[in-house]
């Protein structure tokens, strides 16, 4: 379409599709009308209109002054169910999944490095599943069944352990049988994670997006992982490459999630199997010993298969991948569960005279796992730096920055190391939760003694977990330093911004002297909003500190000789005393945090505001598909983006009208992703209006391969009509920094003043509030920009319809229940 502004045809219909942001919104609030009707969709996500606008397409003369407003509500995708508050416990899985999408853009055609980056992230995610299951095994098998039930004083202090007590001499008193019974807890945990992942997979990933752009299946063979955006060649010879978020299969992760779910479920079962086989067969001989060796060999083989499944294939996005490896999805978890059952039967065989002494051999396992995570994160950082390196001479520079974007590219967080830093943060969360929970349970079982210090009947958890629990207060203390620096810097910035605020409102005030209190409030809001840009520094500090403290924990455990009961032996007396105190404090802090999670989750069942607060966390963290960890909370965009795409395509094709998709906050990210999915013929009829948008400020910096400068400039060239509104007091939204080019104006409008009036004026006789991130529609610039977008779109010719086929705007015949006039009651659903 020509960039020249066309003259709109009065006969063309116009529609404004509103998409709300984080925290959710009701259709009544979005449409500013208490009487709304559902046009299409279900109780989870739907499109609404005002009751009087239901048949607006049949009466276009009534809407010549402005577009028909329509609201897409998707908040129930993330915060509709109170039980989802308990997903806070899956936070490490969600964080490591984000690391997959934080890959820096490849400068040059480097599909091998891109593929290696994805493999490393998936391996880190696999270690988190093993770590969580191993922590459950440590609590149930080692601390409870092996140590506490094997000590008379501990078993007597906890009556619920009586049937396992060695003093009572019951059938379950033998160590192997106690372990077999305790294995039910981690097995149930893995089964629960599988069930939740399968249920959400059926509701999200397994639902085929109705894009209508399916491509023929490729020739048999392995499907390569998606190469770097902007650098990959056209997948079907000569065809123009699509932007990453515009590929047909981007929002359809059915195959990869099913594959990863099978591998992670099998890894969990195999971890429980390894814990069962760790001790019972120590004194077996003959056929029993051979059976134990056979089980351990099978365990090793299946472990190799799991790692191979995780490494072999990533996502396929250039088409809708409808295949499902049912044999793999079924037999891998099934074989692992069968091996677990055989290991439980082997462990439960009678071994008269066997006793449980010391601890299960978990020190070497947790130490090796910690070292593996650190090595994978370091390797991930090396790959990220290699991706950022300029290509050698003679190689295509398809990932090189374009004109006008060199200064923007430097805004990528941590110089491209955002993904490795976030992966390290996920490992730190997993380690802190594992070590702290194990230490807290040991404290509870041991009573007045101090686990890990050899003062009571219990020896305590592995030495490494005791050290990991001791670093929790240290980590929080180190976080206080950058927090204090940021507080001081914000106060200084607020002081400097007072002069800027007075200059911005000088024309309005005229000769009137500025109000120092009003000026200070506006300046403080602007200074606080700038704190968002300091988040990369905090993440970098936390990740680097976590890496160093993790290395210190391994070194401390090694220095103590990994001797159970002597966690801090070998250290300097002052260090040992300090470590003991921080260990106890860290144990209580983890226990308090766990209770806080549970309490918050229970509150979400009854309190809508608490549910909405928790939903904000998922709105930001679960936008991306589950590409690394299948047990992470599901991706709501795999439902929302196809919904918006299909609504825009069907409406414009049927009516030939003009459409403005208007997205606020996270809704602007969904709107941009939906526009990328539109076919080229439809994009010419759609304009994009974003406000309070984190497209560049958050997504462009943290996910540069998908929302970097080149991607946003490509979106501008694609839609041709795009305006972005932002305020200096907005902590989330900001400019998208897309310059004017090829006759198209710059995307960013001049920064909006907030509040719209400094003091009392004839137009605003009462004091105006500081709105920050909310209520952009209240600014007069919003309506002006929306009108300007509609004026740039050429109205099309609607499809001719037979009068006998009169239908409402959703395309349903008059007899359909949804086609009833708005003044008639709707039939029960």
TrEMBL record:
Residues 799-811 have a biased composition (Basic and acidic residues). It comes from the Bacteria. Keywords: Membrane, Transmembrane, Transmembrane helix. Residues 217-232, 814-829 have a biased composition (Pro residues). Residues 206-247, 792-829 are annotated as: Disordered. The chain crosses the membrane at residues 85-102, 114-136, 179-196, 262-281, 287-307, 328-346, 366-387, 417-438, 467-488, 536-558, 578-601. This is Integral membrane protein. It comes from Streptomyces gulbargensis.
